[in-house]
Amino acid sequence: MNFIHILRALRKHRIAVALLVLEIAFSCAVICNALFLIGTRLERMHRPTGVDESHLVQLRVHSVALGSPESILAQTRTDLAALRAISGVTDASIVNQTLFGNSFSSSGVSLSDDAKAPRIGVTQYMGDASLFDTLGLKLAAGRQFNADEFVTSAQLDGGVSGVPVMITRALAAHLFPGQSAAGKNIYAFGANPVVGVIDRLVQPRDDGSVGQYDYAMVFPIDLAYPRGTYLLRVKDSTQRQAVIERAIQTLKTSGPLRLVSSRSATTLEAARNKYYRNDRAMAWLLVGVCVLLLVVTAMGIVGLTSFWVAQRRRQIGIRRAIGATRGDILGYFQTENFLISSFGIALGMVLAYGFNLLLMLHYELGRLPGYYFPIGALVLWALGQLAVLGPALRAAAVSPVVATRNV
Fold first, then answer.
1. Which among 1, 6, 238, 268 is least surrounded, fewest beta carbons within 10 Å?
2. Rounded CA gap, 395 and 310, in Å?
3. How many other CB atoms sit within 10 Å of the CB of residue 116?
4. Are the beta carbons of 294 and 381 closer than 8 angstroms?
5. Which residues, at least 6 apart from 301, have a Cβ–Cβ distance to it below 8 Å?
6. Element at 193 (helix H, strand E)
């Protein structure tokens, strides 16, 4: 195929070619960044939390009339015993904050007791001795809490020091790079010795930087129900809703007057779906934008190629008359579109990089990975070839006699 001949022919239609190149370039730039954004959203939505989500349900109980701290804590222990006795429940615990919930508890953590020492904000989970097993956490190093290490929230608020802590592997690697964290001290509530390293546990909310999402610590605290949420681990994930109904009924018939409602009970998977509904909607919106752009670009290619086929009908007829095959005519228009698409894609790469810089500057988005460029190029090349195929086939079907006679 004579590329020089095709380029000379395109020079006669500079404006139309320039508009089509710009359309392809804009589509390429938007599609590369949109695919990157969709991929980022999907990655966020499917990141593992480190807990056994498919077997967890949570239930929040609201107090009506508070009693003494001792009676509230005693009621909490009675509730937990009753919840563990429910058919289908393998364990139950109470925690101060839940994954994908509305609350977020954190403390500044440093490696020194100096008030001016650098600190990072780390989320903190507090719960009883069953919390580790109820969540289905995995221990990477060290040990779990001993029975005599648990304190009440009142003692923690009162400034008791030396409360042990378990931290995540990601936080341990950040605080003690290349070292074992077990046995060392961190400073959050006074000096807190690290007794264990959890393989993975994430923040309740997917905020902040990607690295800090995996920073978490767990304290051994006997919480009272007004300050926490009951977690139940079920044996069979298909029985989660039935367990929720049994748990609500159990709590309604046990203890003092409290607010127990199905609105405050849900599975952890449902909480995740609700939390990421905006990300899911944004991903679908971007998919719609990409499809719309591709359709508009394809229509532009079809329209312009059809116009050129009509214009060149005599030329096509003459070429067929002097021996050009249908394959030659088809190849001509496909090559012509390939060249136009290539110009548009090359310009689109530059625009895609510029768009990404703007997104990084204003929306804290990461840098566009290089493999999105060939993906965008392949999409636009394939679209161009498919869009030009119909008009090119019509051109190839032109009879030499009919074409020259109708001119």
1. 238
2. 8
3. 7
4. no
5. 20, 337, 383, 384, 387, 388
6. strand 190-198
The length of the chain, given as a count of residues: 407
Number of H helices, E strands in the chain: 13, 12
Tell me what the pLDDT averaged over the chain comes to: 88
pLDDT at 228 over 60: yes
Give the integer Cα–Cα distance in Å for 222 and 234: 22
Q: Sign of torsion, CA 62 65 69 75?
A: negative
**Of 192, 198, 182, whose CA–CA distance to 221 is shortest?**
192
| 98-119 per-position pLDDT tens digit | 999 888 889 999 998 887 888 8
**Which three-class secondary structure state does DSSP give residue 184?**
coil
Contacting residues for 103 by C-beta, under 8 A, at least 6 apart = 96, 97, 204
* Residue 62 to residue 128: CA distance in whole angstroms: 19
Distance CA 272, CA 99 (A): 8
Structure tokens given for 314: 């005599």
Say if residues 171 and 106 touch (Cβ distance below 8 Å): no
